Amino acid sequence: MADTIDYGAVFKALPGMVALLTPELVYADVNDEFVRLSGRSREQLVGRYLFDVFPDNPNDPAATGMRNLEASLYRVLATGERDTMALQRYDVEDPERPGEWSKRYWSPVNAPLLGPDGKVVLILHRVEEVTELIRARGGSPGRRDSRAGVLEAELYTRARELQELNERLRRAHSREREVALALQEAMLPAPRQVRNHPAAVRYRPAVGALNVCGDWYDLVDLVGGERIGVSVGDVVGHGLAAAGVMGQLRSALSAASRVAAGPAQALDVLGRYAHVIDGAESATAVTTFVDCDRHVITYSSAGHPPPVLVHADGRTEFLDRATDTPLDARPDPIPRPQAETTFRPGATLVLYTDGLIERRREDIDTGLERLADALREHRDQDPETLAETVLLELLPPGGATDDTALIIVRL
Fold first, then answer.
1. Which terminus of the chain, N or C, has less C-beta within 10 A?
2. What's the angle, vertex CA 197, arms to CA 196 and CA 202, rounded to 5?
3. Nearest-CA neighbor of 231 among 181, 190, 271, 289?
4. Rounded CA gap, 221 and 228, in Å?
């Protein structure tokens, strides 16, 4: 049935003013209602820059309609998310009488249309004119300064105040996100080679202005032969608080791993530390101790998705035989479990956080299978290339709704 629908005809017949804008803010198409209510023909609209057609009223030095609309459209382009604007006064020039402007009020909504790569290819710009609503009845035509005039001024003032408040909140949230990302970047180790084993690390923040989370990774040299520790973790929460907790847990595990007898003991120590840190509730982590002389991996998990060992022959093994509760949920003195597995030179160890595999309304096993398939297919790639390939194939085109940390080590 859907194949027989003429969506071009549907678009033109939509009630209400609807236009499609390119990322350059040029009209790509407009529906019939947009033509009728704007007082412009299709030829005067399609192919022209939005603000060439509808500039601000030059006779009103306080006009902000164009600036507000431009900011909203660029937010859609930057975030790939819908932006609903507050009530706007946006005067329109009479096309039949150049230089004459009429006072108009609008309620705009701007929504992204995404391409296969997740980037915004068009903006759907829907506008409802509410001029008559603002100029609601109240008082005679000769008494525009009476109840109707007061109502008009009051509604417009409240809308302006709401928009200014929303803009301040956006700026504050943006600053917090930038600071949290900078803090996170400073506390996470840079990608490097560990004991002659090539390694790649990646961190991808979640989409959206407030979704900076507490995902982390770590690589440490262990004493006693050619041994390395590889870990990832995830702190519940968002923003600066989560980033701060992340830094404390990562540093604590890094220190504990250097003196612990094994990964289970390292997580035991980290769990006791998590008990006294506000914000560490339900934090998860998994750590692996890799003995490259014996070709043995010892591992333990505190409520975290299992690492993947990709053997040189393409076989994938999930390290899931030592999974336990999150860091702060283990009662003393019961020790955490740990397990071992063996590998041959050329194998690849992959640790990650749940943003890489989890999707809404999808079983987690589906995400794990998707990860295993990608690693198996591209196992011959070097760690840096493999990390990029895995992120490209597993993360949604528009970005994940949760942070993603990924670490890949060639053994």
1. N
2. 130
3. 289
4. 5
Place of tokens 């402007």: 101
Rounded Cα–Cα distance for residues 265 and 276 (Å): 18
Q: How many CA atoms lie within 13 A of 175 on its CB side?
A: 5
Which residue's structure tokens are 């409520």?
303
Token pair, residue 257, equals 């791993």
> Structure tokens of 89?
């006064």
**Which token pair is 330?**
């283990």
Token pair 């915004």 in the structure block, residue: 120
Q: Which residue has the tokens 């093994």?
A: 317
CA atoms of 343 and 294, how far apart (whole Å) = 9
Which of helix, strand or coil describes residue 340?
A: strand
Residue type, 100: E
Give the predicted TM-score (pTM) of the model: 0.61
108 DSSP β-pair partners: 127
Report the distance separating Cα 236 and Cα 328, nearest Å: 12
Rounded Cα distance between 297 and 127, Å, is 60
Q: Which of 130, 149, 127 is nearest to 140 (CA)?
A: 149
Q: What is the pLDDT of residue 319?
A: 97
In the chain, the amino acid numbered 3 is D
DSSP state of 395: S
pLDDT mean values, one per 10 residues, the chain (411 residues): 78 90 94 90 93 90 86 88 83 85 87 86 90 58 50 58 66 64 59 73 69 77 88 80 80 89 93 85 92 95 95 94 87 84 96 89 89 94 93 79 86 91
